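Please, why this fold?
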Amino acid sequence: MAAPKKSRGPAGGQGRPGRSLALILIAMVALTGGMFLADQPTPRLGIDLAGGTSITLEAKSEPGQESAINKTNMDTAVQIMERRVNGLGVSEAEVQTQGKSNIIVNIPKGTNSAQAREQVGTTAKLYFRPVLTVAQGTPTPTPSASTSGKPTPSGSPSAPTADKGKSSATPNASATTADNGKASSTPNASATTQGRAVTGALKTDTMPSPKASTTPKADATPSASAADEAAAAKLQKQFAALDCSSKASRAEAARGAKPTDMVVACSSEGDAKYVLGPSEVSGTEVDNAKAGFDQRGMWVVNMEFTKKGSKQFQTITKKLSAQQPPQNQFAIALDGEVVSAPSVRTTLSGSAEISGSFTQQSAEDLANVLSYGALPLSFKEQSVTTVTAALGGEQLQAGLIAGAIGLALVVIYLVAYYRGLAIIALLSLLVSGILTYTLMSLLGPAIGFALNLPAVCGAIVAIGITADSFIVYFERVRDEIREGRTLRPAVERAWPRARRTILVSDFVSFLAAAVLFVVTVGKVQGFAFTLGLTTLLDVVVVFLFTKPVMTLMARTKFFASGHPWSGLDPKRLGAKPPLRRSRRVNAPTDPKEA
């Protein structure tokens, strides 16, 4: 006789619910600990709740050049806008792409929004300017002050230059090794020498602009000479006082400069400052710029010019190649900051190679900057929203009140209809709330997530979605009890049916949130993101918390005995005892048979 097979426990781990509960407990502790370790105990608030200005910009391309709107160019635009906004001294400003052609700029309260809109909305301005003199980026003492070290004329061949940051522009056939393509500085020049270099550059104008007057300076009128002296003194004073270590000072130095003016400028890293001549080539004349390798396998940046730009570049490099350092350098100035200052060894024509100790990232960054100066991109304001801090606080308070009212209505319904089962539902809602709160707090510094008013609405809607999952499971358990089963088998038999319904329902909700996130722009994405996040968490909570807790509760006397306040009273549910089949005995029709 065959031995009877051992029956396996029902699917769902009826006998080991503690494992699932331990897993979700560990996740809660880890997320909470990470939230405090990241020093982010509260979610980041959006502009509509914290106050500030939100600007949505849409990229526009010229006809026939739609391919210019791509990820590389949009990322470059974001970097340029970040530098502009940071130059205003704005802290915690956010600039990020949204979709394929939109950029969102969030500027917190306390910032001049009109000035910020002007900065982020204009196209980047890229110019190639000759370098007249260079010094360290810190403020220089007055000319009467002495500095340590032996003074050396800034423009002389013997002037020592810093090894860091000097690069060369050479024809594509060859390359000259330098450091990393960034700005160089002349640290040993004294304040007196620097002042003379500035004044001399203004008076002699060794690198005149093509648009400059060709009249000899000897024929200048006394009034013109006096104006030149005043301009020289002003520029010298501005150059000496310039502190390139300050972002605000760097932005102020570049503000309002015209292409035809001599200007002072800082390197993008703030370690050097320059006096630059008038622009010789505009960035719009750059036809193409790419990072690549030279014959030695070193990273370089190759750039090509348009026909007009090629002639202009040939003219300026012919002049620069005959000068002594640092006046043989041309500065690549983007928005008034020098991103590179390569030196010129020979006359260049329509193409050039910027070589140095580039890494792949630094070469690609410089190529993107050069390319952006020639991009046919402009940005149009799609929407501008300004919210005061007081209004933002009121909206946050209103959102919290709405959420509290919604939660209270759900609690009242659960207690009134499900009685003891409401304890399980409320504990599940609490776990879901903790997971949602900690994740929102951590996603702020991780991906820039900010809780705005639509996101609060999504969280309120999620309360109903989460409660709906509990109700589906509870009703399945009740159906099993109505069929005459006891609680413990009913809990396990109801789970597979409820699980399918919950997964289908949550999948539909998540799909709707994903579609809404993809097709919308702006704050509506906050609603879609929060709805999708809470829908995923609903699945986690139901599987790892609600079901195991229900299994444990079924083992208690209060629920297993069907207490009237348990919500599982068989009599209250209208349960009937199961029908048992019995054999029928037909009564004999013939008395004799009886």
Q: What stands out?
A: Residues 487-519 form the longest helix (33 residues). The CA atoms of residues 510 and 532 lie 5 Å apart. Residues 4-13, 143-197, 204-221 have pLDDT under 50 and may be disordered.
